[in-house]
Amino acid sequence: MINESTLNKVRNLPIEDVLKSYVQLSRKGSTWMGVCPFHSERTGSFSVSPQKGLFHCFSCNRGGDAITFIMEKENLPFWEAVKFIARNHQIAIEYVDEERSEEQIAEARHKESLFIALEYVQEYFLENLRTNMSSECQAARDYAYGRWTEEFCSVSGIGYAPKNGSGFMEYCRRKSLNEESLFELGLFKRGEDGCVYPMFRQRIMIPVRNRWGRIIAYTARYIGDNPKAPKYINSATSCIYSKGETLFGIDRAFRQRDTDYYIIVEGAPDVLRMQLVGFDNTVAALGTAWSEGQFDQLKAYTSSLCFIPDSDMADGKTFGPGFEAVIANGATAIRKGFHVTVRELPFASVVGDDEKQQKNDADSYIRCREDYISLKEKHFIVWLAQKRFFVAGSLVEERKCVAEVADLLRYVKDQLVFDLCIEQLAKLHGKVKLWRDAVAQARGEAKKRNGKVSSMNDLQREAELLRQFGLFIRENCYYSTGEEDEEPSRISNFIMEPLFHIEDESNGTRIFRLRNMYNVCRVIELKESELCSLSNFQQKVGSLGNYVWLAKIDKLNRVKEYLYSKTDTAERIRKLGWNAEEGFFAFGNGILTNDGLFKNVNELGIVRGINDKAFYIPATSKIYIHNQEIFQFERLMVHENRSGVKLYDFVSRLMEVFGENAGIAFCYLLSTLFRDIVFKRTRHFPILNLFGEKGTGKTTLATSLQSFFLHGVDPPNLGVTSIPAMNDRVSQAVNTLVVLDEYKNDLDIRKIAYLKGLWGGGGQTKKNTNTDGMAAQTIVTTGVALCGQDKPTQDMALYTRVIFLAFTKTSFSQLEKRHYEDLVSVCNMGLTHLTVELLNHRELFEKNFPEIYTITKRELASKLESDTIHDRIFGNWVIPLATFRTLETVIEVPFNYTELFDTAVRGMRNQNELAQENSEVADFWNMLQGFQTSGKCIDRAHYRIKYMKSFRPISVKEDMEFREARPILYLNMAAVASLFNSRNMNATANRSNWSTIMSYLKSHSSYLGLKQDRFVILTPSGLPDYSFEMVNGEQVKRIKVNRPKALCFDYLQLKDAFGLELETEVINDTMDVMEDIKNEGDSISSIPIQEELTF
């Protein structure tokens, strides 16, 4: 095999020297032009860029480097083209002379076969973009040449994979490409039915190359109209391609021998944009996090890096994903010895509230070299300090910032750069001396961690450190050295070994191992306040056994200073579940990292090695193993893979027992696992309401879902649970599910108000005694399942905040009972292994959910276009639908999106219908109907119905025209108000309730406006009021009337919506009997009917 030195010499040849025997070139500015050797033409359209080492034909769209040119012109494979150029330019061809085993030789041949297969495949993709005249390929050209330029696409090798994959498969067969190789490269996939299909369809194909320019993989951009298709996909890992070891753009950057630094951007599209504007020294990882191997590759080419992070919104985190990535990768680069700078993009200035619109990246912002140059360049450490101090809200956080920045500064070896950073940091915070001291301390701590303090052994170092604080240890007791001739005094009968400091802004804790003079050991957790009070300290250590402190507080402070100097710090996990700041999911017994690895706590409750930190979860610590009254929730939420049931099997069992409702409930559970992402997009999160009689299994469904987090515990009964207890339950974890049982409509109204607040993420408001003493509202970060035998219609505002699922079946067959018992037994073993499985898809969900949510919402609105659905009910049901749609391609369950969509539509319509039946407006019309039936609401006194072809309310200039006479209901609200007010003696409550009803009535779609009309005045007995007048000598009785402003409604709409029937008819007894006979289906001849008598 040709060695690397020969290949370097060939690639470093001037491209014009390689091409001069094929084409006559003439200089035009910084480029050379000539007649293209690949096709016939009169006017030269063949361009060569000596600076970039690339050629391009503006006519046939061929392009690439010198090796690519020889490969195409001489029809040679890669290595043969290298040999051809070397021989023609008197370059000695050197081979790798190491002895290789048969396995190594076979592996090298296999790799070369993959490279050759990709060379053939590349020709197919290129021809589709260059010469295929179909409308589909023309659309691909329009996209590619519109986003970049035709020349750039040519020299970069950008191609197109058509929607119909049969042409690609036929091409591979025609070229006799090995099918196994195509599968290994990820170009072919096999479906569940065993059929083979191409991986890349309807995608712009962007080649990923190694540093020699050979294609090793593709990153492909979808340009079709399938909303579920991911925007970008990459080739599968193979023996020539690994995402974690590949740098996109390294082939061009490798040729930039005279560049001072490399530019690091977030993704392949950003690299292409930077190359297009002239920065070939740009690379990116095909993923957010950089690996050690990728930095090691760069170390061979440059010592300076400039990061351009995506400027995107934080979305509930301290920084956006782009800044977080650069913070992590920049720190690693500093530790690797790179000189690192940052050029930060401004946020996109887009009018609107959509946070996604405000994102900016290099691909969008940088359109010319001036755009890049205009970005202010800062040293990474200074940039990081600005970010950290901007969000630091306390002295503790500022101290952490100083420590973090100082630890990075110790890696800066260039004294001029170091002094400049110190000077700029002093302008941000503190003074120059503070930063120099912090760096000195960081260096000292690093040496201590590496065991390089001195050549003394551990015991000598310990003794020396004790001596500095006026202490020494003898027989597991502390002694204090005296002044001058004063004898040393024993100050305790025990010593303390510092295990961990648990950080907290107001009252941190420290874990120690106590060992007394009798060699008895105990582990203790002491709060900082207990270490500051001598009596409290003595009481706490003495409570463990024979541990006695003999001295005053000054000696205790000496021991504290000594112990604190050698104590590692851990962060307390305050809430289980998703930790957005650190990017992991915490259980009561360990932490699931973002790479899918679960790390258990040790016996003290400590987890090390996550983000270079230690974390403390005390629930399973041996310190509290005998105290069962604390950390009860944390001890329930532990990860144990005891059942081993597969996700598909679990959901199948769930649906066997609970039917299609289980599908919606399961999708709600999926939403809770990513609640923070959902809430960021929707600004609300619904409650799952499981309603049904006793014995329907509704609570079992809820606890089955809860088994994804904790099992073997009954949900709290709302009837006997206080609001503070409810508040604690829903705020103990993040992105989990809480079940609340026994909902009743007669619950305390304050509890119902609290439940309503959960929809918007707000909990109980209480005084914050730990910080500023001001009122603060608990932030609710969990999903809530509400079970009960009452529909939550006591307050319709609560009912519209839930996803309502009804359960009616109370009797079950023996088979159904067995299925139920099987499900319960599986759930009792816990399902946290399924939680871990689903959480591994968080990156995909976070990327795709916002767009899929919008698409799903639009489709659902189109489906329900003819329905009038309450906005909140509609928004609630969209969430589980969009969640499942986002994850459908990566999870396996016994239903699909189409089936779930139909189920959701039925459920939404059912809930909306119940909402209309139980609303305040519906209650008003039902009561009015009741008043009319009982004779209290009288036609022409309280209401009247007029059939009209046109209608004009007060303050409206134009008539409402109807095709035919339409019934208009005139409501005398003053008279009707007297009927409703008579039900309640509280005048203030009456006025408030009536005002609310009036508001609801006027906002209903059936309301037409106000109009004066004539109404009969009634006496206190409910009869029309009369007066008598003398007319022409005779006494005439006249009915008293008035003309108030009446509320007017579309009567037909009220009949349809609420079943209102205020029109009456008069029938005689015979008609009544005939009606009864007709309804009963009896023969009229069999019943005697008395004829009407005439008088």
TrEMBL record:
<keyword id="KW-0863">Zinc-finger</keyword>
<dbReference type="InterPro" id="IPR050219">
    <property type="entry name" value="DnaG_primase"/>
</dbReference>
<keyword id="KW-0639">Primosome</keyword>
<dbReference type="GO" id="GO:1990077">
    <property type="term" value="C:primosome complex"/>
</dbReference>
<dbReference type="Pfam" id="PF08275">
    <property type="entry name" value="DNAG_N"/>
</dbReference>
<dbReference type="InterPro" id="IPR034151">
    <property type="entry name" value="TOPRIM_DnaG_bac"/>
</dbReference>
<dbReference type="InterPro" id="IPR036977">
    <property type="entry name" value="DNA_primase_Znf_CHC2"/>
</dbReference>
<dbReference type="InterPro" id="IPR013264">
    <property type="entry name" value="DNAG_N"/>
</dbReference>
<feature type="domain" description="Zinc finger CHC2-type">
    <location>
        <begin position="32"/>
        <end position="86"/>
    </location>
</feature>
<keyword id="KW-0240">DNA-directed RNA polymerase</keyword>
<keyword id="KW-0862">Zinc</keyword>
<keyword id="KW-0804">Transcription</keyword>
<dbReference type="InterPro" id="IPR037068">
    <property type="entry name" value="DNA_primase_core_N_sf"/>
</dbReference>
<dbReference type="InterPro" id="IPR027417">
    <property type="entry name" value="P-loop_NTPase"/>
</dbReference>
<keyword id="KW-0238">DNA-binding</keyword>
<dbReference type="GO" id="GO:0000428">
    <property type="term" value="C:DNA-directed RNA polymerase complex"/>
</dbReference>
<keyword id="KW-0479">Metal-binding</keyword>
<keyword id="KW-0548">Nucleotidyltransferase</keyword>
<dbReference type="GO" id="GO:0006269">
    <property type="term" value="P:DNA replication, synthesis of primer"/>
</dbReference>
<dbReference type="GO" id="GO:0005737">
    <property type="term" value="C:cytoplasm"/>
</dbReference>
<dbReference type="InterPro" id="IPR002694">
    <property type="entry name" value="Znf_CHC2"/>
</dbReference>
<dbReference type="GO" id="GO:0003899">
    <property type="term" value="F:DNA-directed RNA polymerase activity"/>
</dbReference>
<keyword id="KW-0460">Magnesium</keyword>
<dbReference type="Pfam" id="PF01807">
    <property type="entry name" value="Zn_ribbon_DnaG"/>
</dbReference>
<keyword id="KW-0808">Transferase</keyword>
<dbReference type="GO" id="GO:0003677">
    <property type="term" value="F:DNA binding"/>
</dbReference>
<keyword id="KW-0235">DNA replication</keyword>
<protein>
    <submittedName>
        <fullName>CHC2 zinc finger domain-containing protein</fullName>
    </submittedName>
</protein>
<dbReference type="GO" id="GO:0008270">
    <property type="term" value="F:zinc ion binding"/>
</dbReference>
